[in-house]
Amino acid sequence: MTISEDKKYVMNTYSRFPITLVKGEGVKVWDKDGKEYLDFVGGIAVNALGHSHQAVVNAIKEQADKLIHCSNLYWTENQIELAKLICENSFGKSVFFCNSGAEANEGAIKLARKYGNTKYKGKRYKIITAKNSFHGRTYGALTATGQIKYHNGFEPLLDGFVYVDYNDLNSLQSAVDENTCAIMLEVIQGEGGVNEADSNYLKEVKNLCEKNDLLLIFDEVQTGIGRTGKLFAYEHSGVVPDVMTLAKALGGGVPIGALVVNEKADIFVPGNHASTFGGNPLACAAGKIVMNIISQKSFLDEVKEKGEYFKGELEKLKSKFSIIKKVKGKGLMLGVELDTNDGSKIVKKSMEKGLLINVINHNILRFVPPLIISKKEIKDGIEILKDVFLEMNS
Known about the structure:
With 394 residues, the chain is of the alpha/beta class. Among the domains are: 55-294, Aspartate Aminotransferase, domain 2 (3-Layer(aba) Sandwich); 298-329. The protein has 14 helices and 17 strands. The longest helix has 24 residues, at 297-320.
């Protein structure tokens, strides 16, 4: 009944799998028939502390008893405290809160346009992004996304966006002109295929921005909040942006997004940007717990260690199965590139055996499990994948 009613009443915007999840705990979830699954999707990198983490649950319950929402016409303590946590653990001077990664990127786009238009009297408005990038589904974020498949049917897109080859400095340099105001990149492209930026490339991008007075925007919606073994992925290269966008893991499952800026980019004033629900007491209560736990060095060191273990186990599979072309990624954001465009079959067979994974671009298996995952759970997932590959070889 659940699936038939979904098809009747819910807009058809998702290709869903034929299971209905009703419960989660840690790295495991259960469907309505009681079947148990290892969740290596984690809400698409959202459930960083796993499902129903007790500290997050308690924070939500306690805050719900006090104040769920009031609006940004008034000060709220949780919002201030979460902003402080983010700034003190990053390059940030200040934070704007919203409800999602797409909204955070919309804010970054507006900010970049204001920076260029205000400082250069309306002459600088172009934003350079990368091919195969993904920045969200709202109109500005969709236009910033360098993938034609997401653009089809929604033309005309917004003016002023230029797409360049990722990890190609020459392509980027040739795109910068007198009308450019910002460069917007993912440190690791998520939906584009788990493609990691080269550290030297990022350093040259930073130099290019400083030389031409461009804002450097890092979309860390998927990579941020511990996913790569650092609190923020930019820390691996040492390249510090002017602007960073966050969401996904920040609320531990509660919708929240954040736009983080340095002093140079701190140019919004009252009336420039706003969000009715952004930074509400409930979401920020969850965000505080997430930040306090994940920002601990011991926690991040464990993510790094488990990520290296997971990647090593995937490399072992690669040595056994020719269908695997490449293992890539960092921390617990990993991808397996396949020598086939039929990755959906592997996803379905894994689900049947109790492992939830997903595929991007038809040929890249993506793994973004909760950061609290154990090595045993990683090994259990690997064993399921091994069985799936064996079946496909037979």
